[in-house]
Amino acid sequence: MQIRFAHILWAGLFLLTACTYHKVNLMGSPSTPFHHLENKLTKHKKVYGLEKVMFDTHVTYFTPELRELYVDEYANIFDLSEPEKEAMLAQEIKDAQEYDDFYIAHFASERGYQNINEQSETKRIWAIRLDDVGSELRPLSIEPLRRSEQQQYFFPHMDGFSKLYKVRFRKTTSQEKHLVMTSPARTIEFDWNF
């Protein structure tokens, strides 16, 4: 009995040490300052139909603070030189002043509802807007992002069934962000209050 307890204790300590060393939690997900804040800024909605999940959507608002942590984590992982890191940070700061960026990981069980950036009016299913004080903003761009290990590391809520998009709006002055995704089937809303 004592030998089993000792083995379990050593295995537990080894696991905790490995998780700390590799910056992952016990579930195997990344656990860095970037990921902690990214998790807090990610909103999740699951929409159910009669028998199945219709939509499973995660939206991350890329705040200036999250951008800085992103640059730190990116520079650490990819061993950027100081000038490369400074250039990347300068671009992120510039983008934060001009744009509101959202990363959307979206799954749809129905054919056609997966692609949120369809541009032709005959095939357009999703309309996305950001509500600002007294106005509705349409995206400046909706950029599909290719699935890669890098994307899955920085956006762990992106699974094998979701598509990831970067959605960019002009910068709003409001401290409240209200993102709305509308389709013929349902409307999904996400809110951030700062």
Q: What does this entry show, briefly?
A:
Helix content is 34%, strand content 32%.
Q: Could you characterize what this model shows?
A:
The chain is α+β, with helices and mostly antiparallel strands and 194 residues long. It has two domains: 1-29; 32-193, no CATH class. The protein is 34% helix and 32% strand. A five-stranded antiparallel beta sheet has the order 1-2-3-7-6. A hairpin with a 4-residue loop joins strand 1 and strand 2. Helix 2 (33-40) packs antiparallel against helix 3. The longest helix is centred in the N-terminal third of the chain and has 20 residues, at 2-21. It is globular, with a radius of gyration of 20 Å. The model is unreliable at 13-22 (pLDDT under 50).
Please tag this protein with its features.
single chain, 194 residues, alpha+beta, 2 domains, 5-stranded antiparallel beta sheet, 4-stranded antiparallel beta sheet, 5 helices, 34% helix, 32% strand, globular
- What's the rounded overall pLDDT mean? 84
Protein structure class: alpha+beta
Shape: globular
Order of helices and strands: HHEEHHEEEEHEEE
**Major β-sheet profile:** 5 strands, antiparallel
Integer-rounded radius of gyration: 20 Å
Which parts are unreliable, with pLDDT below 50 for 5 consecutive residues or more? 13-22
According to DSSP, the number of beta strands is 9
Distance between the termini: 53 Å
The portion of residues forming beta strands comes to: 25-35%
Described by its quaternary structure, the protein is single chain
**Share of residues in helices:** 25-40%
